[in-house]
Amino acid sequence: MDAIILCGGLGTRIRTVTKDSFPKAMITIQGKTILEWELEWLRKNGVNHAILAVRHLAAYIEDQFGKEYSTNHGDIEISYSEEKEKLGSGGAIYLARKFITEKNTLILNGDIMTNFNLDTMIEYHKKNSSTGTIAVVKLRSPFGIVEVDKEDHIQEFREKPTLNHWIHAGIDIFDSTILSEFPERGQMEETIFVKLAEEGKLKAFRVDPTYYWRSIDNPKDLQEVEREWKGID
User: 17, 219 in Cβ contact below 8 A?
Assistant: First the structure.
């Protein structure tokens, strides 16, 4: 399976870390960059070709990875799809589609740290014969929760609990033929996702909460991942 990793964003909310000197996907966590961890995870799960959708400081990433990257689970071929201007996530996928050779394509945000078993999602996608499968995870509250009864007595304090709501995990699998219908410019969540959902062609894959998943959006996320991350094995 081919994978497209969206790693061309500016990372404006984490500039105090990058200082605009390297891309967000190249932030280091426990000795490896986010992108290195993602490539390790993909290769472990049988992906042997990754297309890096780059824009901001694209040369920095290309210089680091070249055309092939060696992981602990084998080598993974690297291609680059470079945006000359901001196209949005949908436009980035549309541009990168020319590198796709497999029947199905995995799309991954370049700021995700996870270790769930991707094979189970791939099997789920194939079994359901859906056009697209969207990984979803339980929402973790960024704040502590106060439980209050009907008489306004405080019953319990819960520190950043997992809530009973599902959010997009930034990991998707699509039938590769649909990539030509992605917008040439715009966000995929606001365009092709909406269209496919209305047509009943999108399925949700619920990531087992016993696995780790975290999107790194700001310095606080980075600090917590640095403390929590246990690796992909």
Answer: yes
pLDDT of 11 > 90? The answer is no
Given phi > 0 = left and psi -120 to 50 = alpha, else beta, which region is 141? beta
Domains along the chain?
A: 2-138+164-228 (3.90.550.10)
Alpha-carbon gap, residue 7 to 35, rounded angstroms? 8
Question: What per-residue confidence (pLDDT) applies to 102?
Answer: 95
Q: How many CA atoms lie within 13 A of 213 on its CB side?
A: 24
State if pTM tops 0.70.
yes
Task: State the DSSP code for 161.
Answer: P
Helix, strand, coil tally for the chain in percent (to 5):
35, 35, 35
Average pLDDT estimate for 178-200? 96
Q: What are phi and psi of 174, to 5 degrees?
A: -130, 145
d(CA 130, CA 110): 24
CA 78 to CA 80: how far, in whole Å? 7
Query: Residue 37 is encoded by which pair of tokens?
Result: 């961890």
What's the DSSP call for residue 1? -
Give dist(CA 36, CA 145) in Å, integer: 35
Active site residues: 160
